[in-house]
Amino acid sequence: MMDHLHFSGEDFKVRNSSFCAVLAVFLCVSTEAFAAAFSWTPTTSGIVSNEFSLVQTVDGVTVTAQGFVAEITGADATVYGPFPTKTGNSVPRPQAGFGIDLRGLGGEQLGLIANSFDGVTLNGSDWGSAVVAPGFNSFYWSPIDAPDKFDFAIFAFDEPVDIGSVIVDDTSNFDRDIWMATGTNAPDFSAGFLSGISAFTVVNSADDAGDGMFTHPLGAEGISYLLVGAPPVVALGPLDAGNSQFYIDSFSAVAAEQPIEPPNPVPSPGTLPLLLMGLAALFGFEIAFENRRSRSL
After folding, report:
1. Each residue's pLDDT tens digit in the chain (297 positions)?
2. Does residue 188 lie in a domain region?
């Protein structure tokens, strides 16, 4: 009779594996992944325009966008902003504006028109005598002796994200060279631009001398802040030199992974019945298995 209760090592492996499979449902830690594509075009719906920011939520991920200008001051740059938003309307001369379709032409993506506004005095302007620079650019249009500057946007995410690339569009056939900086904490520019990005990973990405849309690879993972800007005319710290003007069209992909909280080691009242049912099924399988073996002996 005792032989009927004996089980071999192979029997134990099968039963132990089944038991672990049931426990895994309750005790393992898994992840939940999702992707969100953010675009910044006149046809994009759901963008909320606040006084100094644009906010967009896609698939549960929220990003806040703001526009800034960095004026070169010797070996560093002074940062001004955030700039007031102007979305879907033509920015009157000579006002400042950060937003989508700033000239009201119906087809321009996210850009920045730099000019002094309440509380912020710049040393130049993106407005010229008969022109305006509506994208992110590396220069002031006026006056002729204005200091060098470069525009950039900050995108703040409400949770860590992965970003594969950034897509831009050219403005009036200018170059589309950009720099991108990624980090986990908000930048502090109170001590200058270089101090503000000192903890960031900077990627310089050159144009291919083409026209239209261009994809700049990034490959950032687990970031909370993304900075995208025009290069300075003269290299500054980790930023390469360039002379660009472009619109930000979209992030090709934003993916986030959120860990699911591990269950309590002691099953909760709601999960305990399921666990007991699984164990009962395994116990019944064992009895049936032993009965078959006893009949065969």
Report:
1. 334 333 344 443 434 444 444 434 434 444 445 567 899 999 999 999 999 999 999 988 999 999 999 999 999 999 999 999 998 889 999 999 999 999 999 999 999 999 999 999 999 999 998 899 999 999 999 999 999 999 999 999 999 999 999 999 999 888 999 999 999 999 999 999 999 999 999 999 999 877 889 999 999 999 999 999 999 999 999 999 999 999 999 996 565 665 545 545 555 455 555 545 654 554 454 444 455 445 445
2. yes
Tell me if 268 is assigned to some domain: no
Residue 284, classified by CB atoms within 10 Å of its CB into exposed (0-12), middle (13-18) or buried (19+), is exposed
Domain that holds residue 217: 32-259
- Measured distance CA(232)–CA(34) in Å, rounded: 36
| 227 SS3 class | strand
The pTM of the full predicted model, rounded to 2 decimals, is 0.77
The number of folded domains in the chain is 1
- For residue 294, is it within any domain? no
- Whether 59 and 44 have beta carbons less than 8 Å apart is answered as no
Question: Does residue 27 lie within any of the structural domains?
Answer: no
Identity at 64, one-letter amino acid code: T
